[in-house]
Write a structure and sequence with these properties.
homodimer; 328 residues; alpha/beta; Rossmann fold; Dihydrodipicolinate Reductase, domain 2; 2 domains; seven-stranded parallel sheet; four-stranded mixed sheet; 11 helices; 14 strands; EC 1.4.1.16 (chains A, B)
């Protein structure tokens, strides 16, 4: 019997989840939940019900795992604990600093309800976290480095859009090649924010806007841009949409460690992602996590989990025997 | 209380394990077991007992996890099931084709004895297997590629040493750069053995040996070299020992997958290792696995496991709370 999946929220991530469910024969899309008018949604999957989010509780018992596709700023802190009362679930909560707080809230709700919840699935947090944990457990002496990009940062793009005179914008986060090379070469450098990443902004201004002021406002924006070498390129709205409409992303986690009696040898571990579509890949991770959640729930493991708690075999559709024979 | 570790076999891997234990404050080296005369062994760790392998059963109850450092050809198939009668243990059994058989033998012994055994820890099988499983679970559509090297293959070096007229030899396995680039570029090529790796041999011949015959014997050796583009370089014994005495290795696991409703986007996952010392790094993986085995045993999980069964958090000395706060 296929695992019945619900998608809660139908933006880029929800659509990516719909694609990921389609690729996994043991998963089946049971329903899509939306806060918009359900009649306004046309899912790609034939025949799948679109349900008002307000009616989600009626679906308790009809969904094996709910995949939450809302945002981390305001949606998930409310939705994940709330939905854990009725459903096993997976979310991609990605505000690193607030993970302990989110974990506690979801764990309380899921433990009380006897459901199984996995938070912060995705790639960072998620796969990158896994690789930090594996690499640091194996190489206790050394340095860990995370680089993001080249890829589109939605948060930074939004910040530019809020500047007066900006019609639309797209921001790419780009690792500094020399920094990456130094880490790969085993130098274990101490790197400032500026030395690790640059920020490339493509901006379409409104007619008559003061370009010099916009550029200045971007480059001096605290937290977002002031600590980085930032370049601003003005393009037409048409060009922006034609050349910068994708959502690529990626990055690398590196551990440069030391082995040997006198730590005389270097060992470098690198995990990297290169993604044409960030939301589709994130959704693919969530789909595999949903499989694991379904199995953990069946085994009586309730409460809040993260991918660090999941035996890797549970993510795969293959049996333990198949995994040992084919992939070990 | 520290986890008491036994090292069974004191070659390169055993010495690497001794180094790895030293780097982990929660692990403590309790004894080294050897089939050689214990008096002939001088461990690097001050005060650690060196015990004859034949007396190992006397140490039941005094070792929390035994790390087996013998070879996969003849040692581990016998030693792992035998030692699982008395000890929780970790081995690095790496004959991929015989893993199901080895697993069954160890599982029977460990289940009967109520011990916990983890086989095929290391990096391939081991970390590379993990990455194959994660990547295929997340990206069901696509191709998986494993490249090894540049690094020393002990088996291939030994094969050359058995040729008449060879004094010593070292063989490097080298990935073909163009093949790696094609996979990284998302082309998902079908690659033959010859297209994936080349083999570089450094050979010191005995005085008066027929170099042309040696080169010919190497290049036409079935299984080992005949299917590869192989280069043979003759060097002096001094040069061989001066320039080729290390045991570097590494490699990459890549998954080139497809996402999107019509599989219109590419996602590439790459995990790579660059190791100055293959045995020291392998031992570092075994040490982390020993920590997990100790915890799984304490939780009542007995029988044979692989790293695919281990929740990643169990490999780390940090608590779940610390991991969520610092590394997730």
């Amino acid at each position: 019997m296929a695992i019945r999946i619900g998608i809660f929220g139908y933006g880029n991530l929800g659509k990516g989840t719909e694609c990921a469910v389609r690729q996994n024969p043991d998963l089946e899309l049971a329903a899509i939940f939306t806060r918009r008018d359900p009649a306004s949604i046309s899912p790609m999957t034939e025949g799948v019900p679109v349900v008002a989010a307000s009616e989600v509780a009626d679906w308790a018992g009809k969904i094996d795992v709910m995949i939450l596709c809302g945002g981390s700023a305001t949606d998930l802190p409310v939705q994940t604990p709330e939905l854990a009362r009725w459903f096993n679930l997976v979310d991609s909560f990605d505000t690193h600093a607030k993970i302990p707080e989110h974990f506690a809230a979801v764990d309380a709700a899921a433990s009380a309800a006897g459901t199984t919840a996995l938070i912060s699935g995705g790639w960072d947090p998620g796969l990158f976290s896994l690789n930090r944990v594996y690499a640091e457990a194996i190489l206790p002496q050394g340095g860990t480095y995370t680089f993001w990009g080249k890829g589109v940062s939605q948060g930074h793009s939004d910040a530019i859009r809020r500047i007066e005179g900006v019609a639309d914008a797209r921001q790419y986060t780009v690792p500094v090649p020399e920094a990456l090379e130094r880490v790969r070469a085993g130098q274990r450098p101490t790197l400032t924010t500026r030395q690790k990443h640059t920020r490339e902004c493509y901006v379409a201004a409104k007619p008559g806007a003061d370009l010099a002021r916009i550029e200045q406002e971007i480059k001096t924006m605290p937290n977002y841009f002031a600590d980085y070498d930032t370049t601003v390129t003005f393009v037409s709205l048409e060009q922006l949409h034609a050349e910068h409409s994708g959502l690529p992303h990626g990055g690398s986690v590196l551990r440069s460690g030391l082995t040997g009696w006198n730590e005389e040898h270097t060992a470098t571990v690198e995990y990297s992602l290169k993604l044409d579509s960030n939301p589709e890949f994130t959704a693919s991770v969530l789909a595999a996590c949903a499989r694991a959640v379904s199995r953990m729930h069946a085994a009586g493991q309730t409460g809040c989990k993260t991918i660090l708690d999941v035996p890797p075999a549970l993510l795969s559709p293959l049996s333990g025997e198949e995994l040992r024979r084919q992939l070990l």
